[in-house]
Specification:
Elements (H helix, E strand, L loop, with lengths): L2 H4 L3 H23 L3 H7 L4 E4 L2 E4 L1 H11 L10 E14 L2 E14 L2 E18 L2 E14 L16
Parallel strand pairs: 1-6
Antiparallel strand pairs: 1-2, 3-4, 4-5, 5-6
Length: 160
């Protein structure tokens, strides 16, 4: 715990942790329901790093998500993201970071329900005008199954 965060009242630390949890869950729900624009907005102020490909800006992030994931007949990637082992570091009243694991399951005709990728999210957050938001998100994939129905192509940067 940093010296700055140890000066926060326990209730203030819990509020920051709750806001971080909400952002982590919102991202996963948006992905699973094909809400590309909602996640682009969620990450609009963030540096988004997927396997070394860095994307910034709302429109670029939306294009990246649209171009690099496969969306199926129901306009979703047919995935179920689980986020676990969440470690949150409240650095100050306006800054926090977290590391957590993710597991992605997928099911489609011809692809029985199965885990397709695991890894971790490495994130930073900031309070901007009273609202918490992502400052950065790094997606570090670790173990792979069959991602042939999930990833559209090797990740490519999108620039204006």
């Amino acid at each position: 715990m940093s010296e700055t965060s140890s000066k926060l009242a326990p209730i203030d630390r819990l509020i920051v942790e709750s806001e971080v949890h909400r952002l982590l869950a919102t991202y996963a729900h948006n992905l699973d329901y094909g809400k590309v624009d909602a996640n682009a907005e969620l990450l609009s102020a963030a540096k988004f790093n997927v396997g070394g490909t860095i994307v910034e800006g709302r429109d670029n992030i939306a294009r990246f998500l649209q171009n690099n994931l496969q969306y199926h007949v129901d306009d979703t990637p047919r995935t179920w993201h689980s986020v676990s082992n969440i470690l949150i570091n409240v650095e100050s009243a306006t800054a926090a970071s977290s590391i957590c694991y993710f597991t992605v399951h997928q099911e489609l005709p011809g692809l029985p329900l199965q885990p397709i990728v695991t890894g971790r999210y490495i994130d930073t957050f900031e309070d901007h005008d009273g609202a918490w938001r992502f400052a950065s998100r790094e997606v570090e994939a670790r173990l792979f199954g069959d991602v042939s129905k999930h990833v559209a192509a090797p990740a490519e940067a999108v620039t204006e």
